[in-house]
Design a protein that fits this description.
Length: 274
């Protein structure tokens, strides 16, 4: 399926990234390992966005996302809805300086999405300006596969525990990567874990929960910058901290060409009304 996409200026994108550098928060994350996650340092993941949908007369958080450029956000295809996109947030309930909201001018889901290829892009109604609270994440190189045990962090406002309340404060949790040869074993995720996915966690201690869908798997480079290597896709229906059922992410490095083509090519075939 194709959608109308308005092209963005490459110069604008490069200028945005150059203003403060992708994947380099002004407030550096405080990294650790806590059961079910912990409160993140305010604005230490400044590419994290909250995708919100109308419910009972107000906008409510339904999924996470990752800012890639002034007007493009990466999320999961299964998250697509009518969105208000909240950027620069730490608390979802508080009014915060530096936070902004944008509408979604268009959404583009992967043309082969059917549980697999769970990836989408949201074009913001107008560009945002880089700041201490809003910074894009870096993208990994195409085809990169994370090694088993790589220390990555999932972030989001998902439920604090199985069937528990959603978080108000942005949460972070260390989720070590589980190699595909392990994650695809019969007593793990078996054939549900494909080579275009990243598994992380599954130790029965830490995991992402409902509401983290669409959010990033953040992995740090040797130079200190952070890449978004995964988009939260699914986890165990039995709960948040299930042994041998790690959180499964769409592997961003497998979709770099798709991301670039969506962001940089105008497709004038049809429009998506939100």
């Amino acid at each position: 399926m194709k959608f109308l996409i308005c092209c963005i200026s490459l110069f604008c994108s490069y200028a945005f990234v150059a203003a403060c550098g992708c994947g380099r928060p002004t407030a550096r994350p405080v990294l650790g390992r806590v059961v079910a996650g912990e409160d993140a340092r305010p604005h230490s993941w400044p590419w994290q966005v909250s995708l919100q949908a109308p419910s009972s007369g107000r906008w409510r958080h339904v999924c996470g996302g990752t800012l890639l450029s002034p007007d493009w956000v990466l999320t999961a295809a299964h998250c697509i809805n009518s969105y208000s996109v909240e950027l620069g947030k730490h608390s979802l309930e508080a009014s915060e300086a530096g936070a902004v909201a944008r509408g979604a001018a268009a959404v583009v889901t992967h043309e082969d999405y059917n549980v697999l290829n769970d990836i989408a892009l949201v074009k913001l109604s107008s560009p945002v300006t880089a700041s201490d609270t809003i910074t894009p994440a870096c993208l990994p190189a195409g085809g990169v596969v994370l090694p088993h045990g790589a220390p990555c962090y999932v972030t989001g406002w998902g439920r604090l525990s199985t069937d528990g309340p959603p978080a108000d404060i942005l949460q972070q949790a260390l989720l070590p990567v589980v190699g595909h040869d392990i994650c695809s074993q019969a007593d793990w995720w078996s054939v549900l874990a494909t080579e275009k996915m990243v598994c992380a966690g599954g130790d029965g201690v830490t995991a992402g929960c409902n509401g983290d869908s669409g959010g990033p798997l953040n992995c740090q480079n040797a130079d200190g910058s952070w890449d978004v290597h995964g988009v939260v896709s699914f986890g165990s229906g039995q709960g948040c901290n299930i042994l041998q059922k790690p959180t499964v992410f769409t592997q961003v490095s497998s979709y770099i060409d798709w991301i670039n083509s969506v962001r940089n090519i105008c497709d004038e075939s049809a429009g998506l009304k939100l």
